[in-house]
Amino acid sequence: MDTDIVLAADRIVARYGSIEALHGVSLSIRRGQIVALLGANGAGKSTTLRTLSGLIAASSGSVRFLGEDITRVPAHRLPHRGLVHVPEGRRIFGDMTIRENLDLGSFTLTDEAERRRRLDHVFELFPILARRHNGDARNLSGGEQQMLAIGRALMAAPQMLLLDEPSMGLAPQLIKEVMNIVQRLNREGVTILLVEQNSKVALKFADYGYVLKGGRIVLEGRGSDLANNDAVVSAYLGGVAA
């Protein structure tokens, strides 16, 4: 067994009712990598993340995390193991304060000193959250809500983050700011699987990439190789290589 592999999916199949959305997806992410999962709308990117994090039960195939089979582990148990999913659309609780949203990320933690340490780290990464921690989350801008969603995930001290479309709906400067934070977290030791429709953004930061089309992996390779291949970007990613 390759102990350097943090997360591995082996031929996972996922369904919505009678509709098969993933048709045997296999991928692996090594410790310390940023890996991009790319594809057009409807390719199966978010479904893949939901299956990896247990929100959708795989019909067949397997998922392993840190060497253990987690295919049937309930979604709410996985953050305790170090695998945390930041879903598309932020999914924050608008009628709760910023601090309360963050505390939810560490709700099972009984060590108050450790909770404070994690909170201080989040506030260092996102000073705007520190300044407004008593305010309702609904009053944050889209970019600030994305920061809160990532901050809440960090309160669980993840070894790996599954990030679903963190740049969605953000202005270019905010995209740069959020992606700089993603890079910093990676330097601090967090392995990251990044789902992005914006291939230019994702491949600028990714060590490796997988391209999904119609619920299947159709291409994989080093991030730089995918980014510089005009034919690949035009055929699968709906754009022009950066």
**CATH level 1 class label:** Alpha Beta
Categorize the overall geometry.
globular
By CATH, the superfamily comes out as P-loop containing nucleotide triphosphate hydrolases
From the helix content, strand content and strand pairing, which structural class follows? alpha/beta
Mean pLDDT: 91
Q: Summarize the amount of helix as a percent range.
A: 25-40%
In short:
With 242 residues, the chain is an alpha/beta fold.
Which characteristics define this entry?
alpha/beta; six-stranded mixed beta sheet; 242 residues; Rossmann fold
Q: How would you describe this protein?
A:
By secondary structure, this protein is α/β, with parallel strands linked by helices. The protein has a single domain (5-92, 153-237), classed as Rossmann fold (3-Layer(aba) Sandwich), CATH 3.40.50.300. 36% of the residues lie in helices and 27% in strands. It has ten helices and ten strands. The protein has helices spanning 45-52, 78-81, 98-104, 112-125, 127-131, 142-154, 172-187, 199-205, 223-227, 230-237, and strands at 5-16, 19-30, 34-38, 60-65, 68-69, 83-86, 160-164, 191-196, 208-213, 216-222. The strands form two sheets. It has a six-stranded mixed beta sheet with strand order 6-7-8-3-9-10, sandwiched between helices. Strands 2-1-4-5 form a four-stranded antiparallel beta sheet, with helices on one face. Strand 9 (208-213) and strand 10 (216-222) form a beta hairpin. The protein is globular, with a radius of gyration of 17 Å. It starts with a strand and ends in a 5-residue tail after the last helix.
